[in-house]
Design brief:
Elements: H1 2-28, E1 34-39, E2 45-50, H2 56-73, H3 89-123, H4 133-153
Antiparallel strand pairs: 1-2
Helix pairs in contact: 1-2, 1-3, 2-3, 3-4
Length: 155
């Protein structure tokens, strides 16, 4: 059952990467030559670049997906916050398998939100992000310590 759930999760995550590529390719030709590529925490564009930067989020998502898949397939090559012993190996590997998959979902949501906002802000500088940047920042800042805490519980 565990492997079936992980397989479903992996297909879902890969689908998210495909969706991000589709979104980018679909909107690329409608973008102006200069698009926002960086935003402050309030969501105001403070950095601009050529429209080729529209591919930054899909490339990052694909790279992270490949890195996470490698880590999941070779857990012995990854770093853990605790020493891996014969007693805690299975628990730590399970925590990593679940944590990396959830982390990728969080990152995929962030990348998709940024990509959508970048496209909308490129044509309407009054557009607002669908998920605020403060919420995004807090989700990552709070998720990582929670995962480390869980790993230490099962050391």
């Amino acid at each position: 059952m565990e492997n079936i759930l992980f397989t479903i999760f992996d297909i879902f995550n890969f689908g998210w990467v495909v969706f991000l590529w589709w979104l980018t390719i679909k909107n690329y030709n409608t973008l102006p030559e200069r698009i926002p590529v960086h935003f402050d925490l309030e969501g105001k564009a403070d950095g601009f670049g050529g429209k080729i930067y529209a591919f930054l989020m899909p490339v990052l998502a694909l790279g992270l997906y490949a890195l996470f898949v490698y880590g999941l397939r070779h857990p012995e090559d990854t770093n853990f916050p605790v020493e891996i012993t014969d007693q805690n190996m299975n628990a730590q590997f399970l925590i990593m398998k679940i944590g990396l998959r959830i982390l990728f979902v969080v990152l995929a949501v962030i990348f998709t939100n940024i990509q959508d906002y970048m496209f909308r802000n490129a044509v309407d500088d009054q557009a607002k992000p669908r998920i605020s940047f403060a919420t995004i920042f807090l989700s990552v800042v709070l998720f990582t310590p929670a995962l480390l805490f869980i790993a230490y519980l099962f050391k």
